[in-house]
Request: fold
Amino acid sequence: MDYIFFSSLRGSDLERLVVSYDIVCQWHLNLRTRMLQYPHHLHISSSILHVTFLIPKFHLPAHIEECNLLYSFNLTKGVARTDGEAPERGWANINPLAQSTKEMGPGNRRDTIDDFFNDWNWKKIIKFGPSMVKKIQEAARCSREHKEALDELEAVIPKDVVESWTAEVELWETDPAKKNPYQTTSAVRLKLAEEAARTEADRGEIEISHEMHASTIIANGIAIQEEQHKLLLEKEGLGDHPTTTQLYKLTERSNQLRRKIALWIDAQVTVMPEASRHRQSKSQTTTEGTPGVQVYDIELWLPSKLATKNTLVNHQFRLFEWQLRHGQAHDALDEIRNALRLQAYLYKHKDRYASGVKANTRSNTAISRATEMVKEGSRKYRIAREALATLAQTGIEIPVDWASNLRPLRDEDCRKLSEGLVGDTEGRRTVSWIWFHFPAAAEAAEDPRLNDALRIEWCRSRARSMRWTEEVELLQEEMRRIRQFLRWEEDRWMGRAHGKSPADITVREGLTSYALSQGTLRRKLRERFEETWKEVPQMLEFFSQTCSVDTV
Reply:
């Protein structure tokens, strides 16, 4: 891979380079050191001032959260809507060729594959006309929609906060080593990581399994529980008459999650063998050989579930989960408070500025999303608090006042700061307890009214708007380059027609005729594309004016 990479850049005079590779997060480490082991003519040119390493969009979800933040096309300035998967698409189209090539010798097989790819590429070239129009129409429409969505979000956020966040995200885009505005920190995970490092150093009592610390295994288990819930919601949302495509996608996601759970169980059993015995009753299959338990019903048997089973679970594991659940409960309260703040902002914005059916419909949709966020935060909190209450009864050393800060959550507790219970007057209303206790992360926020959750959502909305705007610009440049390339191809073939020719007149006439036909073909392609694209400037102007009118 190193040799291919360095050879492809040989003689390049680029200033900025974007490298996309499935495992670039690992491959790019020490790349410069490895480069020095190759001859000087394979070294990267000094003209390349900036190199960005990214992971293709289809492969990125399989990586850890840090990779999803550092190597994402969606969050990288200047890459538009590029997904990095273009080299992979041809292979799906070539699968039927396998039956023919498997009986061939190496040389004939390579020639056949080359011919097939050449044909595939040529078909792609001659379809540039309509395909580019379709792409730029979608890009212009999405650019307008995401710009409007960003403007609506910024309209309910104080201007100074937006300016502060803008400066922060622009600084990160310039220097990724700076604080990542898309990432929220967790004091609990940091504390556990430090504890894991100390344990690893002194070879303490906690066993290391699959190169994962026990706290990491438990944290991953909690994350898998959230994926199970999301999958269940997706299933419930299909309705009574789902389509074949919907069922296929649900089954595919179920299979992926089942494989992830299987890998997690392999790691869990080595540090919590008691979980294996309790899992047996849930692991049976039906007579048809299908899993007896749906993937979202698989019990993970975390320490909080084993706490009431008279099992010999290491107290340290219970403490790990208690700490994680404690942080999860506070994060859930943060989500509820953020959603309630957003809901209040949206109601005020609707009352003051929403006029007409279109504006009111958008406001109602945004308010409904905020309401769902409150419900989701409440669900997470109740799960975390139930686990905390169970673990608290196992004798682990925890703060005695935890229950006073994390009380049982009722539906009526989830109300805005200035909102009382139904029927309460201004003189009788009380403030819900959820506003009394803030975690350290919220206290340290630059703006106590709008903390990490809203900042991250704003950053992502901004990134989406910018990527679609860049896509419009990139497609216009690509259309210009297609025309220029076809003009260059035409000149090249015409030059061959009038260049040096063999002495044999028959061969000369044949070569000249072929070169003229190829040059003419390129000219006609270019003229056809130009005719197809002639309305693009007016179309872009229309979308631009529509966006301006909506903004006003």
In short: The chain has a mean pLDDT of 80. The longest helix spans residues 452-497. The beta strands are 16-20, 50-54. The longest strand covers residues 16-20.
